[in-house]
Amino acid sequence: MVIPVWDCTLGTLVACLDTTLRRIGGAPTYVLTDNAKTVTVEHIAGIPVRHPQMVAAGRHYGCQVVSCVPYDPESKGGAEATVRIAKADLVPTDANLLAAYDTFAELTDACLTWCDAVNLRRHRATGQIPASRLDIERTIPHVLPVEPLALALGEERLVGSDRTISFNSVRYSPPPGYTGARVWCRVVGEELSITARTTSGDLSEIWRHLLSTRVFRRSSTSTTPSIGPRAGRWLKEAGPAGAVRIRAKMARAVELATVLGNDKVDQALGLAATAGRFADEDLLSILGHIAGSRPAGEVVRADEAHSVQHGTIGWQALGQ
Asked: Residue 10: CB partners within 8 Å, gap ≥ 6?
C-alpha cells in the first residue's frame, strides 16, 4: 500500500489508515508504525506514550497501534523498506528516468498502478502472489466500522446544492462532483483541509483552502478583532494558554456582538482574558453575569492559591 499525502498530520495518518484497512478488507490485530510524534508523544523509561487520539483510532478500528523497535531490522527495517522501494519506483530521479508529475492526482494514480503491479507479482521469498494470499487472509481480520474516525479527521460537513460548505462562518468550495456528499474539515497550519471518500471508496484529501474569517480585519500593519480592544487581549491570552477552537470562539463572539452590542461583548472578553477563562461556554456565562447588572467584583485566576474546589472537611466524619 502506497498513498501519497501532503503532510504527516494526525488527520492525514488516520485517513491513510482508514483507506488501507478498507482496501485490505478488515482490521488486523495490530498495525506497526514508525516512532512519529503523531503516534508516540514521548518515551518515559523506555516506554512509548501513545498519542491519545491514536489510541482512540485503534479502538475505533479494532486494532492495536504499536511502534517499531529502534535499530530492529524486522520491525523498523520493514517499515522503512516499504518507503525506500516505493520512492525508487515512483519518485522521479536520474536513475529511473521518470517524468515529473504535472498534478498530485497523477502521482496518486501512479501509486495505485504501482500497488496493483507489485501485489499481482509473485513474491520472491514466499513464492506466492500477495493479492491471492490476501484473499485467504481476509477471513481473519476484524470487521471494520462503517464510518471513519471523525475525531481525527475533523468536523463533518455536508456539501450544499451551491457546492460549498460552511466552516467557522466562512464558505469554502470543494472540487466538482461532491454536491450532497459528506466531507470532513480540519485546520492544518494556515490552511483548511477537506477530506472525503473518492469514487474508488478511499478516504482522501480532496482540496485545500487558505483559511479566511470574518472575525479579523486584515491590514498591512496589524491584525485585530473587529469587536474592540479587549477582544485583542483575549486573543493574545488565549493562544499561549493553549485554548482550542479559537477561531470558532471568536466567530461566536462576533455573532453575539451583532445581537448584544460590541461594548458588552468586548467587556466580557476582557474579563475572560483576565480570569483565564477560554472554555466554550465561558463567554456566555460572563455575558449572563453582566446582563444581570451584577458587579464584576475581583477577578481571580484559578491557581494553587485560589481554587473553587471544595475542601475535605466534609469527609472527616466518614466511617465514624
From this structure: 38, 51, 53, 54, 152
Cβ neighbors of 151 (< 8 A, separation 6 or more) are: 53, 56, 57, 60
Residues 200 and 257 reside in one and the same domain: no
pLDDT of 123-173, one tens digit each? 888 889 999 988 888 888 888 998 888 887 888 999 988 888 988 888 888
Residues 175 and 257 in one domain: no
> Among candidates 316, 161, 317, 170, which has minimal Cα distance to 255?
170
45 three-state secondary structure: coil
Summarize pLDDT for 18-45 with one digit per residue, the tens: 989 998 889 998 888 877 778 888 776 6
Structural domain boundaries, residue 41: 10-137
Using CA atoms, how far residue 20 sits from 74, 112, 123, 263, 300, in Å, is 21, 12, 20, 52, 51
66 within domain boundaries: yes
The answer to whether 13 and 6 are in contact (CB under 8 A) is: no
Query: Do 177 and 223 share a domain, yes or no?
Result: no
